[in-house]
Amino acid sequence: MKRKMLAFIAVVLLLVVTSATGILWFELAGNKLYTYPISVGQKTYTITVLTNWNSAPKVTLSQSNLKFVSLDFVGSFRETVFFKITIPSDLLWGNISLIWKYYEQNPDRYTRTNDGVYTSVQMTFTHTATTEHFEIHGTEGAW
Does the pTM exceed 0.85? Predict the structure, then answer.
């Protein structure tokens, strides 16, 4: 019985140390994860943005008939920026595309994945303007 308890404690400690190491590595790599609760009607959706940008990007839903999520990186630094935005598939769906500075991007410029629950769009770009504006468009949306 003591051996089982010791084994259990060892496994728990290993999991804690592994998790802490992963979190520390994640922070040292310069990436931050931001979460945005977005309410539509009676439901709240969570959009996440993983990025190496130095501050939280701005995330909003469109206020027009077009269905899209806006993503803005604000600042005057010139640097290479990575982002991965993850949107619930029941918030935005259909034909998903990425717009940067109001120009639709070739799908070769970004990676799009969908696991049936979430749609993710990830891209690396050079931040040069005061605001770099992106839109993730879908042909259908919950709002």
Answer: no
